[in-house]
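Case study B.
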Amino acid sequence: MKAAVLIASRELRDRSRLFVIAAAMAIVPFAAVFTVRENRPLAIATVAAFIAAAYTCSLALMLGVSTVGRELTERRLSFLFAKPVSAPSIWAGKAVSALLTVLGAGVIVILPAYVFAHRGWQDMWSAGGKPVIAYATGMSIMLFFVGHAVSTLLRSRSAMLALDFAMIAISAITMFSLARPLLLGGGRDLVLGMLAIAALAMLLLFAIAPAWQLAQGRIDLRANHRALSTFLWSGAAIVLIACAAYTWWVITPPIDSMTEHFAVEQSRAGDWVYVSGQTPGRGQYLASFIVNTSTKDRERIMVSPWSRVHFSNDGRTIAWLEPAELLLPRGHTFRLYTRRLETGAEPVVSPLELPMPREAALSDDASRIAIIRANQIQVYEIATGNLLGAATVTTGDLESMIFAAPNLVRMVERRSPSAIGMAEFDVATKKFTRTPDRPHRPGHAAGLQLTADGSRVFLRREGTIIDARTGATLVTLPLTSDKPFFNAMLRDGSAIVTRDSKLYHFDRNGALVAEIPLPVQRAGVAAQIGASKLLLGVTGQNPKQWRMLIVDLTTHKVVTTVDQVLGPVPSWNGPVLREFPDEATLIGMDASRKLVMWDARTGKKRPFHS
Amino acid sequence: MSATIEAADLTIRYGKKKAVDEVTLNVGSGTVYALLGRNGSGKSSLVRCVLGQLRAAAGHVSLFGEDVWKHRARLMERVGVVPEDPDAPPESRVRDLAWFSSCIYSRWDKIAFDRRMQRFAIDTASRFGELSKGQKKQVSLALALATSPEILVLDDPTLGLDVVARKSLFEEVLGDMADRGITVLVTTHDLGPVEAIADRVGMLDRGRLVLDEEVETLKARFRRIRFANPPMALAQANFEAATVRQWGTGTEAVVSNYDDVAFARLRNESEMPVADVSPMTLEEIFIAVVGEEAGVRS
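Model:
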């Protein structure tokens, strides 16, 4: 300790010229008096802060590069090593003196301006100037330590330098690889925190590594390089291992620890459920799982929170998109992942790069994808990325797109603010056809619903069902807008309207088939159950009002009621009403916002995580 | 006499190159040991290793019986060093260097340092980098001696100095030795003054210690013999010739195991017309041992 203080003291004396230069620089800001007419104190303070920041940073770099490296190169470090002084004391003394020189020089530059233009400093603080000083101080410290390390490595001119560059590359790639799953899971806050802690740990390593370097290398430049590299990269490896452990901990939360559910989707077959949500201590990171409600198999999958998860209509595949550019997670190209809904199956990434997910549709078996790109509709085979067919499409925004058949893609286009139109592309013949424009009130895609075969389009706000091929009106439901209503089109083209506490069932020709009383007001259509049942849901701010109903359209009765449960809710992921089998186990959220499974036949609930 | 400096099977490498190759040497307490060798023979590397500044690839070095690599900082309290190239910070003033040393060494002798500075006529307000080469060496020596060392290591202390400066430097060392009887390890090319003070000498040749002996013994066994005949007779007397060369019409040989009795017998038996048998200086022995014409070394 004493030796370190003595070394620092001696070196500070030797660097007295740098303080003289700083004093000369301290006069420069006052030249602003002659060049600025308004708020001269602020101008003086700003110039002083800028000069101080520039001077301290460049001084820190210069001292970092020369403090030990130059003495090693010029064989002058033996002066201290021939004395009863330990290597850590040598480094501590040199580092302290260098940092005191840097910070002292900065204070000398600032001090006159601070004293004589105090009001300017106050103005600058209030204008956000404080962080500049803090950043300059932090940057100076960092430049000193990193400058020393880089100087030692470069001065040795050793072949080990190649190894250092390789380690830098490996560390960067490893860090990127560790950050990737966190970013994909929306844990940007975690990545920033992890990077900040890793950077601080590395700075600490850079600060203490030279003590080890000098203890092991002493006056031998190459031995210094070897010791420094060994220490730094060993430390970096520990930091990376810690980051890897942290990343692993974040991305592998147990499913039953999930507290906030971000998305819950259920496959058409009903067996598989996709759940994503937040877990304690993991910030904004969203964990994603697929769970088989029959076998209780649960598997973690990596899905971005901004990705759209889609179950194929055959219920056998889950698909999702991830941004192709990780650093621009809201960029415009995505990669498509598919995973068979089988225990132990691995996700498969398609070689395709896709545009915005809104302009894409999956075939029922998830083997094909249709996308709109550069005024073209393109249909690809997902596994190979082969283009199966393409055609030029006319202008217009896409409202909905669906595979009506493996070789037939149907679209609803928004052709103007007040008109829509239908179009279809036959993949086999490469033929693209369009219907004439049809007036339609401006609205969201959710205002449209298609049958699973895409043959009918339900304009829900108007209560009109049209032929998807010709655009001709098929049915106009007798709706009035005096009271709120919900509606949906079923698989067979018939339609449901709920209003007040009544459910109206219209056949595919628009004739009223049944009027069924409901025990609740304002129930929305969530899904079709089996051949003849309907799942209705009652939402609300108060979870105690939540209720799910199953209505038998044959007997015209409510057959199952589940209170204080909401879900499955209508999917926002497709234009087709979802369907579940009669015996499906359904997923919802209870009043305490915990996931529950309930039996579609009996309405019996049980905890999801049981 | 216990060994103050001890090196055992010491090997120093720079990459694949061996600078010092399995050297073993012992320097007893109070001994003046002159380590000689040509440029690049490994002297400075050996000295740096002895000072714990350079790590040996193999073998070990101890000072006062302690491993110098492990306990360097503590051991340097008892060691004064005059390096080959003056290594003090050039920006530091001489008085600051003295102040720094006085704070670090518990046995700092301020009076001795000041006296030496007066004797060398060096202004202590001068910056070290502004001094002449000779003055730098003098300051380094004064700094080293003022620590009251038990071991003084002089690594080529007279390199680049003029005759007067060399003489002054060695006088200082001799004076201090007379006062305290310190152990000295000196490497030098300046063999004249060393011959006068060295008790023992070691010679390094391409990293190997080819000779390690008391100076008096060394000088006693080395002789230059000049004679008219070819040198076959030398072998009959079991003389080992370090060098043999033509000398006029005769031969000059340096023998490394000279013995008066053996030589008299040889002369009588072979009726050899001996022209001259002369003792050799350390410098001449050095040339014979490690010079271009060196043959048998010991």
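The first strand of chain B starts at residue 3 and ends at 14. The remaining cases will be described in the next quarterly update.
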